[in-house]
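hey so i finaly got around to running the thing on Arginase/deacetylase from Cadophora malorum. pasting the sequence first so u can double check i didnt mess up the copy paste, my clipboard has been acting weird all day
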Amino acid sequence: MASSNKISIITAPADVGSVFPGKSRAPAALQSVGLVNKLTTLGYEVSIHDALPDGPAGWSESEIGLNGARNEAAAVAVCHAVKDTITSALANSSPEEQIPFQLILGGECLIYCDLTYPNEPGSTGNIAGMALTHLTLRSGALESMKTFCKPDGSGSVDSSNVVLFGLNSSSPANKRDHLGYLFNENYRVFTSSAVALDATRRAKEALSWLEERVDYILVHLDVDVIDPGLFPLGNVPNWTGVDFPEIMTALKIFLASKKALGLTIAEVNPYHDPGLKMTGRLVDEVVAGLKARLD
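ok and heres what it spat out for the 3d tokens, dont ask me to read them lol
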């Protein structure tokens, strides 16, 4: 399990695979509202590792390539940089130590999101919307993304090791064939409607399902799962009906697990948050969840 008092912060300020600019500013914004100081005050030993030391990989206008993807080379380079940085951070731990908790401050959702694939009819070509396709390596995945796989060449994610929590089944972005794929492949899904009704119950059910099947848990917080009419910090409007406190309740349940090894935070767009009040609230809730781990 993760060390009780060490946290490695990995910053990945990028929005090269996205629809709108702004998320590359998220790691700096999250730190500017006191994240590191609040963690060290709790008693955590914090180390910071920048996956993009030469500066943020910002949004730029681009054409869709012949393979159906925009900014493919830049997006793949960011993925390699994040992978290498995490590998290096883990390697710095001495063999007798437990693994430090990994707190990954992303820009965009290059970790997982929806099931769009390159050259899909109607696709924008933005790779950030293809992340679950590339984690599963389902049909249509980019060849350049197949390097991010298990040793046997299969996708790092399948229906045995992931829960999709807060999926907005009514969103036009989640097409019928995407939802059909999840059903056909037996993925465990909790819809945003179910989470809105009882976030505590659903989070406990999701965690129990995972703890029975995996050795370690990586929690991925995509703030787009929070309804923008209630808390408009996310990059793209996603009308889920789920309020900020409900998602934070679920987050704390997940972080309390002894199997939780890390947390990624994605889709924060500081352009939506003048004065960073929402960003500050988010950091306070994350710190509260991590405080419980020390207890």
